[in-house]
Amino acid sequence: MTQHSYPNAPTQFVDTANFAVRDENVRCLSYGVLRKLAGLPRDLFADYWRDVLGPLCARLPGISYYVQHHFSQGHWANLWPLPDGVHRMDVVLDGAAEIGFADIDGLNRYADASRVLFGDVFHLFEHIVAYNLPRGSHTLVDREPDGIPNGTDRLYRLHLHLNGGSGEGFRPWLSEWARHLASAPAVRKLRLHLPELYDNARPSPPSPHGDHQVSDERKDIGVIEIGFASALTAREFYESETYRATIEDQRRYLRSVGAFLVTGVYTYVRDGVITTAGLRGSRTAELIERIGAVNQTRDAVTRRFVQDPTSVTSPWEEHVT
Predict the structure, then answer these.
(1) Is residue 296 a part of any domain in this protein?
(2) What is the pLDDT of residues 300-321, one digit of tens each?
(3) Do the domain assignments include residue 171?
(4) What is the C-alpha separation between 263 and 154, in angstroms, rounded?
(5) CA torsion angle for 256, 261, 264, 266 (degrees, to 10)?
(6) For residue 49, what are the CA distances in angstroms to 3, 9, 39, 137?
(7) What CA–CA distances, in Å, run from 261 to 33, 228, 277, 287?
(8) What is the pLDDT of residue 228?
(9) pLDDT for residue 290
(10) Rounded to whole angstroms, what are the CA distances from 12 to 8, 22, 141, 300?
(11) The predicted structure's pLDDT at residue 4
């Protein structure tokens, strides 16, 4: 056993289906966090981000994966238990976006084209920061069959922003702790991001609009996306021995934690293929799914929404939607 090893999680009632392998094609990644512009109505912000900026970004070259996570601002109490000595991270965020690439060439092609997005930074975001993950992220467990969710989150899902004060051993411990949490049957999804240290002297994205600076506690972080079937399941997990066995190490390695409840997950590109949400807008894609309009996913229709019918793969052709 290593110095951070914990007792194995109970194995009863384990769902053996694990779709984590589908994320392995995302070799490098940007994990962006954002806060809406002050004075902008929340519903207007969310709808524009979903249905205007989302499809525009999905059409940029080089992107292999693009997902928006919308956060709740009305519910932040008691989302994640904080051990004694670990404080709540001082930051307000409205969402996160993952933009992934199959290789560095894809990243570079996207970077060259991404300035077209900066105008919407002016319209939407008071604060936006993109953390760089040149070796990608790690999905340790994913028991959700749907790889392209588009709508209200079906899970009780949190994004945990974890600061270790740049302490020695923080990142190796975080990786092991994430694996331990992922082994629990109650955990439906766990994805670990270990980005490079953020440098305020090199703001990202390089947009002239919005604030791109972070406080000291947000420069060196890890991020865990963790999902449960329900809030009740999550609370039962917090009280389990699987979780409680890690509390002392949390006190040792963590300085602060920001917990954000996800209200909606919207997928615009998966495996380099644009989804119906990416092609038509998220709410339009919801309507197509709700009414069962399979005709709207046929190539004869989808090709009418691209300037060059050969420039984008139809979601129907790739069985993405």
Answers:
(1) no
(2) 999 898 866 444 454 544 444 3
(3) yes
(4) 9
(5) 20
(6) 44, 39, 16, 24
(7) 13, 12, 22, 25
(8) 98
(9) 95
(10) 12, 25, 16, 48
(11) 60
Q: Which residues pair with 152 in a beta bridge?
A: 264
What residues contact residue 169 under an 8 Å CB cut-off, 6+ apart?
253
- Domain membership of residue 72 (yes or no) is yes
Closest among 176, 222, 177 to 197, alpha carbons compared: 222
Rg over CA atoms, the chain:
20
The answer to whether 108 touches 171, Cβ cutoff 8 Å, is no
Amino acid symbol at 25: N
The number of domains in the chain is: 1
The conformation of residue 302, written as its DSSP 8-state character, comes to: H
> What backbone torsions phi and psi does residue 39 show, to the nearest 5 degrees?
90, -5
Distances (CA, A) of 54 to 1, 43, 57, 269, 280: 45, 15, 5, 10, 10
Check: CB of residue 237 under 8 Å from CB of residue 184.
yes
Q: Residue 74: its pLDDT value, please?
A: 87
H-type alpha helices, 19-101: 42-48, 54-58
Closest to 164 measured CA to CA, from 250, 47, 81: 250
Tokens of 285: 């894609």
Q: Strand 87-88 vs strand 256-270: parallel, antiparallel, or unpaired?
A: parallel
Q: Which residues of the chain fall short of a pLDDT of 50? A: 1-2, 10-14, 309-312, 314, 316-321
Q: What is the CATH number of the domain that holds 146?
A: 3.30.70.100
Cα 255 from Cα 163, distance rounded (Å): 6
Distant-in-sequence, close-in-space partners of 111: CB < 8 Å, separation ≥ 6 = none
Residues 195/129, Cβ–Cβ less than 8 Å: no
Q: Name the nearest CA neighbour of 162 among 82, 66, 75, 68.
A: 82
What is the C-alpha separation between 94 and 179, in angstroms, rounded? 27
Residue 307, in any domain of the structure: no
- pTM here is 0.91
> Range of 42's domain?
20-271
**Torsional class of 275: left (φ above 0), alpha (ψ -120 to 50), beta (otherwise):** beta
